[in-house]
Amino acid sequence: MSRAKEAFGVYVHWPFCLSKCPYCDFNSHVRHAAIDEARFAAAFAREIATTAARAPGREVTSIFLGGGTPSLMQPATVGAVLDAIGRHWHVADDVEVTLEANPTSVEATRFAGYRVAGVNRVSLGVQALDDVSLKTLGRLHSAREALDAVAIARRSFDRYSFDLIYARPDQTPAMWAGELRHAIDEAAEHLSLYQLTIEEGTPFFGLHQAGKLKTPDEAVARALYDVTQETCDKFGLPAYEISNHARRGAECRHNLVYWRGEEYAGIGPGAHGRLDIDGIRHATATEKRPEAWLMRVETNGHGVVTDDLLNSEERADEFLLMGLRLAEGIDPERYTALSGRPLDPRRIALLREEGAITVDVTGRLRVTSSGFPVLDAVVADLAA
Questions:
Q1: pLDDT of residue 133
Q2: 62, 85 in Cβ contact below 8 A?
Q3: Distance, CA of 180 to CA of 173 (rounded, Å)
Q4: CATH 3.20.20.70 domain span(s) along the chain
Q5: Which of 213, 235, 101 is nearest to 167 (CA)?
Q6: Contact 42, 75 (CB under 8 A)
Q7: Which residue of 39, 200, 235, 330 has the smallest Cβ count within 10 Å?
Q8: How far is residue 175's CA from residue 364's CA, in Å, rounded to a whole number?
Q9: Secondary structure (DSSP) of 27-70
């Protein structure tokens, strides 16, 4: 297959937020002084140039502006970043360009500016459609503001998505089913639905440890997961990945790059990348602290602090871990090609017997609906 036919994504990380959500362990930072966007735009362009020199000749099929809160950027800054990508790589005519936005930073004029800059898809961090939950989650917007933002996205872009968090404190399956039906009415083609996880190092972790934040027990969490699958299936947004639901053909092409084990460049503070250089897969990561990243780029042309060479086993394990998240599953022959050894047929047979996986007539291996809630165990068993 020629290089131009393969998917190649560019992830750009804007690390700033208006406030830090208590459940968030992403690389996001609050700054009370004004951000020097021109300086950051120049640094993004410099890192793009350096990365393109290491990985030339790619055709960019998707670009994802994530964060942080990229919708705090001026449209001109977004335009400068997209222009830099276009200068150093060929960009596909049908490129998908996604920008993450928070409802608090959505204005119709700004969205129109992003569209002119080249963005053609937005992903909104709605997180909940009731005000009590939004307050618990530390969000700065109301449910009404969130729905207004979705309406602006609908008017501004042909493609849009939004996120919701479930398994929230005091949430019942019946409450979630109603909220989800409301969300599906508002979502044209795509929803990302994540179970609330309590991550170490976040304010929620301390509250949870102290017994001041009670999340649903395992049985209720499983019921909430089942409601998610049943409701989305019923209304035409089946899961194509363990936490992502879309109408057929409306999947996020950029995220499919990750899950299918394809190449992507990571640009900006704390961004990760996977690049194939001279036949070897490089796992890159940049400096997380925004100002330190900025100085590194201005001095060295890039902010990369980790550049690991993945051996065949590591690459195969990553392919398995990511690929089995997808409803389409994996081709075991690709695992064999990457690792130099096939998956253990005895383990496959046992997992099939337990109903955790299926293997179709073409040999494609998929995790079943009963296997997805224990996906980590299925992956560990196959990789052993």
A1: 86
A2: no
A3: 10
A4: 8-257
A5: 213
A6: no
A7: 200
A8: 37
A9: S-EE-SSPP-HHHHHHHHHHHHHHHHHHSTT-EEEEEEEEES-G
Distance of CA 111 to CAs 5, 40, 119, 124, 336, Å? Answer: 31, 21, 9, 12, 45
**In the block, which residue shows the tokens 């909220």?**
179
Neighbours of 384 (CB within 10 A): 7
> Which candidate, 26, 202, 203, 5, places its Cα nearest to that of 100?
26
CA 120 to centroid of chain Cα atoms: 17
Classify residue 326 by its DSSP letter. B
pLDDT in tens, 265-292: 999 999 999 999 999 999 999 999 999 9
* pLDDT score for 54: 97
pLDDT tens digit sequence for 149-170: 999 999 999 999 999 999 888 8
Q: Which residue has the higher pLDDT, 104 or 267?
A: 267
Taking the C-alpha atoms of residue 50 and residue 298, their distance in angstroms, rounded to an integer, is: 12
Dihedral-angle region of residue 311 (phi above 0 means left; psi in -120 to 50 means alpha; beta otherwise): beta
What are the structure tokens assigned to 223, written together?
């019921």
CATH architecture entry for 8-257:
Alpha-Beta Barrel (3.20)
